[in-house]
Model the fold of this input.
Amino acid sequence: MEQRSSLPEHVAIIMDGNGRWAQLRGHERAYGHTAGVESVRRVIRAAARRGVRYLTLYTFSTENWGRPAEEVEALMELFCRCVIDETPELQRERTSVRIIGDRNALSERVQSHLARIEEDTAGGDRLTTLLAINYSARWEIAEMARRVAGDVASGKLDNTKIDAAAVASRLSTAGIPDPDLLVRSGGEMRLSNFLLWQCAYAELYFTDVLWPDFDGEEFDRALEVYATRKRRFGLLI
Ligand code: IPE
Ligand code: IPE
Ligand code: MG
Done:
């Protein structure tokens, strides 16, 4: 049966194009990352206002470690600063923040800032924002496989019962519905190792708009396009 829902419950975003945006203006790439924070603020506000329940933002991929140390350091600094600066606004918007990704490889300072934002926003009941930091879908799937193997070895899971639900409950997004809509800014048409399991049936929306130019209007445009899509999930209309 065709399913048509005008509003996605879960929107995932690949926030791409910060570096190009900065370079077009004759600045260092880090300048674009700082400008991108404003877009994050706008999109969280727009998502909460529209009634979206879950927003997942691709913030730093495991592959991004391969960038020049200077840029990686600027990004880590930005994460720490944002935790402090943005917490009051997130609390006002009743947004809880949850981090997904491999935290262990982050510095203790970054880890403690991320733990703090999760604690300080835990009461947010309007919107849940998942920040994918040091995330990659292949890391997450390998991690899930380790958990499945551990649970089988300890007798907690019967190996004949390994099904899609058993897998989903061992991913970092356990308990959260799959994204209905995946948005990518910055013009590239690829997934870059983001939510490969969870986006099996997501509607895809690509825009050339560079992330620092992405605003509430762009978000609404993506929602409008989503509302025109016919989701079939492999069935016949
Ligand atoms: C996305 O913007 C942000 C991160 C990957 C951290 P980019 O930094 O990839 O910007 P472009 O794609 O080079 O313009
Ligand atoms: C994806 O953007 C990662 C984030 C937005 C955090 P990239 O710029 O790293 O992806 P590629 O290199 O274009 O695939
Ligand atoms: Mg990029």
Summary: The pocket of IPE (ligand 2) is lined by residues 14-16, 58-61, 64, 188, 190, 192 (CB under 6 Å). The mean pLDDT is 97. The radius of gyration is 18 Å. The chain has one domain: 10-136+178-228.
